[in-house]
Design goal:
This protein has 361 residues and is an alpha/beta fold. It is 40% helix and 17% strand. The protein folds into two domains: 14-258, Aspartate Aminotransferase, domain 2 (3-Layer(aba) Sandwich), CATH 3.40.640; 261-360, Aspartate Aminotransferase, domain 1, CATH 3.90.1150.10. The chain starts with a strand and ends with a helix. It binds pyridoxal-5'-phosphate. Pyridoxal-5'-phosphate (PLP) binds at residues 7-8, 62-64, 67, 89, 136, 140, 166, 168-169, 189.
Length: 361
């Protein structure tokens, strides 16, 4: 079996894989409701969030469904969102706003660029009517961990504008300051830093924020957060959930708790990523961003001279490792390595050995 160094789906631990084999359930029976309730509580507990102030809403779909639910479900009909882009996923937030006809302005940056706070301040000053700012926490396009502290500070200064955060590739491994950042909602998924399987995603919503949403003005039937929250709070679900992926997520959350939470996972990812960064340095393979600018989850690197992405990918695949290409315009120049999943130090050391063989030959 190959070691997946792509940013999700991830290599499963044996206990998560086994959880998929638990008994069949009807989604209208108490056993399922108990499972859903446990997951909803566990998700809040990852960041010690109070259930009086916060609620998690569990959806069946990949991470993008949670992004779409967050944008459509937390921006009111007359709201207006500023989307900050510096990669594929920020641009995806804009696409969602376009498709649903949500009033929006865009603060665009080239992929991988740091947020320009002067321009952000200008937008916040000029657009006094903004109801939200939407942004990606860890921009998986390049591995940049966006500095939300700075954004939140400015949003606070200009009218206390709440944030909508795509934390799909950071939830469970990077710090998220829900209260301090004035978060209205946050979208994430089971199969990235939480180490579950693809098929379940979720949004964490601020209760005050969702209470302002009208139950009759839904923009979408399937992803309607107001409807989901009402059903899940009263022990139900509007639609059939993916039972087996729920089992896996529940087990994955227990596993995270057993290892003492996201801080430990962050530490583990850095141990693995430092093996990669150091090994690559010896091979003269340069990181796209400094360690300080990068997430612990994924880093991007310039392709070594004289080898195409395809050739590198195929040789590593033959050796048992799946790496990940750069997206869009970066496909010819970058490749990406992720540490998510049940990856051991030895796996990463062997990966570096394989890299050495390929690059030096
Ligand atoms: C993976 C990812 C998504 C969602 O992708 P899906 O393929 O829908 O799971 C969204 N945002 C970020 C930052 C991601 O890394």
């Amino acid at each position: 079996m190959a070691i997946l160094l792509n940013p999700g789906p991830v290599v499963l631990s044996e206990r998560v894989r086994q959880a998929l084999l638990k008994p069949d359930l009807c989604h209208r029976e108490q056993e399922f409701i108990d499972l859903q309730n446990k997951i909803r509580t566990d998700l809040l507990n990852v960041y010690q969030l109070s259930p009086d102030q916060w609620a998690s809403i569990v959806l069946t779909g990949s991470g993008t469904s949670a992004m779409e639910a967050m944008m459509t479900g937390l921006i009111p009909a007359h709201g207006k969102v500023l989307v900050i882009e510096n990669g594929v996923y920020g641009e995806r937030l804009t696409k969602i706003a376009q498709i649903y006809d949500i009033d929006h302005v865009v603060l665009h940056h080239e992929w991988g660029e740091e947020f320009d706070l002067t321009r952000l301040e200008g937008e916040l000053q000029y657009h006094k009517e903004l109801s939200h700012v939407a942004l990606v926490h860890h921009e998986t396009t390049t591995g940049r961990l966006n500095n939300i502290n700075n954004v939140a500070e400015l949003c606070n200064k200009y009218g206390n504008v709440p944030l909508l955060i795509d934390a799909v590739s950071s939830f469970g491994a990077e710090e998220i300051k829900f209260d301090e950042w004035n978060v209205a909602g946050c979208a994430a998924t089971a199969n990235k830093c939480l180490h579950g399987v693809p098929g379940t995603s979720f949004t964490i919503v601020n209760r005050n924020a969702i209470e302002q949403m009208s139950a009759t003005a839904a923009r979408t039937l399937y992803l309607d957060l107001v409807n989901y929250l009402k059903a899940q709070e009263s022990g139900g679900t509007p639609f059939t959930q993916s039972i087996q992926t729920f089992y896996a997520l529940s087990e994955a959350l227990d596993e995270l708790d057993d290892m003492d939470g996201w801080q430990q996972r962050q530490k583990q990812y850095w141990t693995l990523m430092d093996i990669v960064r150091k090994g690559f340095e010896e091979l003269n393979i340069k990181p796209r961003l400094t360690r300080e600018e990068s997430s612990c989850v994924l880093n991007s690197f310039h392709l070594p001279d004289g080898i195409s992405y395809q050739e590198l990918h195929d040789k590593l695949k033959a050796a048992g490792y799946i790496i990940y290409a750069g997206q869009g315009g970066l496909i010819k120049s970058l490749f990406r390595i992720s540490c998510m999943g049940d990856i051991k130090q030895g796996d990463m050391e062997r990966f570096i050995d394989e890299m050495k063989k390929i690059v030096k030959s």
